[in-house]
């Protein structure tokens, strides 16, 4: 059924992918990248990557296991011995070349991203621009990482501080932002002299492979960037190896809190450096002083980006009783205009869910809510007239604390609205969970803005704003939403350690 396309040219391979697999005519075989070589799995096995909009196979990628991952780690460790000694200027220039190539090819990358994730093409282009901005940012930041000389209390001593690269880093990334999550981690790590082994999500490895083709063209030496692709069957073993192998200095992971916890445990023995960007359960509070039009428009962006499959997506809507009816009415009038469908169709704003597991989760959460008394205002069921993995944009009211939509992140296009009376009540509900990634609120009252921003137990707060992610800002959570910050001038800290050198007996 599937044809081999044996051209060795990455560019040709990308074009074939778009002209064949993406359009649904046939699939092709991709390769992983280890030590500067495009390579298959030692086992010879492949796994299929399909378009969630229509189930068609887009391509097949090597199903790599522990032996492949070990080779990638060894290569990255060997490459680190030279890469750590390159100058910040050298690294900055290579990153800049990578950025330029990613920009030149952003339309092609976005097509691949839509084909494997179902994300509407316009949104996929937006993600590529967003992801590229991290490569640009860290190419610029590379030369700004500087040490210090601290005056000692003893005249014959000097205290020097250097930031040195930690070594090989394992990057494990999710399917919801196949480009941006790799860019945000890899560019930061590479900019300070670390080498990387990337393990993209099994649903979306093609965007990652495409990105690495441009990294190769940009001139990263062999072994500095490696990408291993693994099916769900191998992901846990490969992850364990990355966490436990003594040549790996650190792990950076974005994904579920469940897997984050496993990685945390696995990293404990080796006291590995660990960056975790895990799940959220973002509150979005609309106070009575809010500009309701701003609140509705921002809420739609926050909720429906990537069809609700975003870790910072608003999950629990809290609306003050005075404006509850007006807000719901305005919101529903806009939700009913949203166009859902195949990401390649013009005007489509919402794609499918990524896989059956996500569809089942969303269906189960809505069923749980309605069975406990929630009211469906719009939607509330799978949109199987569009395809197997589509779920209608949904608004639920009458939410109570015993429902899953109240306590857990749904990761789907469902808005659950809770009515509250006082600011204190809204803060209590917002903070009544064990995760704290993002929180949003809408208010025109300046004292309330400072008060609520301070009291929300989240790592990030959007005030009168639903889209807060950018390269310049520190992205990350508190509580069980994770450890560390990505992006911003703090985004290299996970990848460096502080070396204190004392120079003594100076005369
Ligand atoms: N925070 C986020 O950005 C984010 C992203 C994706 C999913 N999620 C959440 O996770 C839920 C499940 O989605 P998912 O199953 O794709 O996420 P996941 O956490 O299972 O997968 C994320 C990455 O971890 C890898 N992985 C899976 N099990 C592993 C293991 N034992 N050791 C090492 N790596 C492993 C996967 O291959 C993938 O690369 C979603 O419903 C959503 O709530 C959150
Ligand atoms: O879902 C995870 C990341 C989303 C973002 O970077 O805005």
From TrEMBL:
<dbReference type="Pfam" id="PF00171">
    <property type="entry name" value="Aldedh"/>
</dbReference>
<dbReference type="GO" id="GO:0004777">
    <property type="term" value="F:succinate-semialdehyde dehydrogenase (NAD+) activity"/>
</dbReference>
<comment type="pathway">
    <text>Amino-acid degradation; 4-aminobutanoate degradation.</text>
</comment>
<feature type="active site">
    <location>
        <position position="277"/>
    </location>
</feature>
<dbReference type="GO" id="GO:0005739">
    <property type="term" value="C:mitochondrion"/>
</dbReference>
<dbReference type="InterPro" id="IPR016160">
    <property type="entry name" value="Ald_DH_CS_CYS"/>
</dbReference>
<keyword id="KW-0560">Oxidoreductase</keyword>
<dbReference type="InterPro" id="IPR016161">
    <property type="entry name" value="Ald_DH/histidinol_DH"/>
</dbReference>
<protein>
    <recommendedName>
        <fullName>Succinate-semialdehyde dehydrogenase, mitochondrial</fullName>
        <ecNumber>1.2.1.24</ecNumber>
    </recommendedName>
</protein>
<dbReference type="GO" id="GO:0009450">
    <property type="term" value="P:gamma-aminobutyric acid catabolic process"/>
</dbReference>
<dbReference type="InterPro" id="IPR016162">
    <property type="entry name" value="Ald_DH_N"/>
</dbReference>
<dbReference type="InterPro" id="IPR050740">
    <property type="entry name" value="Aldehyde_DH_Superfamily"/>
</dbReference>
<dbReference type="InterPro" id="IPR029510">
    <property type="entry name" value="Ald_DH_CS_GLU"/>
</dbReference>
<dbReference type="InterPro" id="IPR015590">
    <property type="entry name" value="Aldehyde_DH_dom"/>
</dbReference>
<feature type="domain" description="Aldehyde dehydrogenase">
    <location>
        <begin position="38"/>
        <end position="500"/>
    </location>
</feature>
<comment type="similarity">
    <text>Belongs to the aldehyde dehydrogenase family.</text>
</comment>
<dbReference type="InterPro" id="IPR016163">
    <property type="entry name" value="Ald_DH_C"/>
</dbReference>
């Amino acid at each position: 059924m599937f044809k081999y396309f044996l051209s060795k040219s990455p560019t040709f391979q990308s074009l074939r992918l778009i002209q064949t697999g993406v359009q649904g005519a046939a699939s092709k075989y991709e390769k992983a990248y280890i030590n500067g070589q495009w390579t298959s799995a030692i086992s010879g096995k492949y796994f299929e990557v399909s378009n969630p909009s229509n189930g068609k196979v887009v391509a097949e990628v090597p199903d790599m296991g522990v032996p492949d991952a070990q080779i990638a780690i060894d290569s990255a460790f060997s490459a680190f011995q030279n890469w750590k000694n390159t100058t910040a200027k050298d690294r900055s220039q290579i990153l800049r070349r990578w950025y330029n190539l990613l920009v030149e090819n952003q339309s092609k990358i976005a097509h691949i991203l839509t084909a494997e994730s179902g994300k509407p093409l316009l949104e996929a282009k937006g993600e590529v621009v967003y992801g590229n901005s991290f490569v640009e940012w860290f190419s610029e930041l590379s030369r700004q990482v500087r040490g210090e000389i601290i005056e000692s209390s003893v005249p014959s001593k000097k205290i020097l501080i250097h930031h040195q690269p930690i070594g090989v880093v394992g990057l494990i990334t999710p399917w919801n932002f196949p480009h941006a999550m790799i860019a945000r981690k890899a560019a930061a790590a590479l900019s300070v002299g670390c080498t990387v082994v990337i393990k993209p999500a099994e649903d979306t490895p093609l965007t990652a492979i495409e990105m690495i083709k441009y990294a190769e063209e940009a001139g990263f030496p062999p072994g500095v960037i490696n990408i291993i692709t693994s099916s769900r069957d191998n992901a846990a073993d490969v992850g364990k190896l990355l966490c436990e192998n003594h040549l790996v200095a650190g792990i950076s992971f974005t994904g579920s809190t469940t897997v984050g916890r496993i990685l945390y445990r696995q990293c404990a023995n080796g006291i590995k450096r660990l960056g975790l960007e895990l799940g959220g359960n973002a509150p979005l509070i609309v106070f009575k002083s809010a500009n309701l039009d701003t609140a509705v428009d921002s809420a739609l962006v926050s909720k429906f980006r990537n069809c609700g499959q975003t870790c910072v997506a608003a999950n629990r809507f809290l609306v003050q009783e005075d404006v509850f009816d007006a807000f719901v009415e305005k919101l529903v009038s806009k939700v009913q205009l949203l166009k859902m469908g195949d990401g390649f169709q013009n005007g489509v704003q919402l794609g499918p869910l990524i896989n059956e597991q996500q569809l089942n989760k969303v269906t189960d959460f809505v069923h749980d809510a309605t069975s406990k008394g929630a009211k469906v205002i719009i939607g509330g069921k799978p949109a199987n007239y569009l395809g197997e993995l589509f779920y209608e944009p949904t608004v639920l009211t009458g939410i109570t604390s015993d429902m899953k939509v109240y306590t857990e992140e749904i990761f789907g296009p469902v808005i659950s609205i809770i009515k509250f009376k006082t600011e204190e009540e809204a803060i209590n509900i917002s903070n009544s969970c064990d995760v704290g990634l993002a929180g949003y609120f809408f208010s025109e009252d300046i004292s309330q803005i400072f008060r609520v921003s301070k009291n929300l137990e989240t790592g990030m707060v959007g005030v009168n704003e639903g889209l807060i992610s950018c390269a310049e800002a520190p992205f990350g959570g508190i509580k069980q939403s994770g450890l560390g910050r990505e992006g911003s001038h703090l985004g290299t800290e996970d990848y460096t350690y502080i070396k204190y050198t004392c120079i003594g007996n100076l005369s």
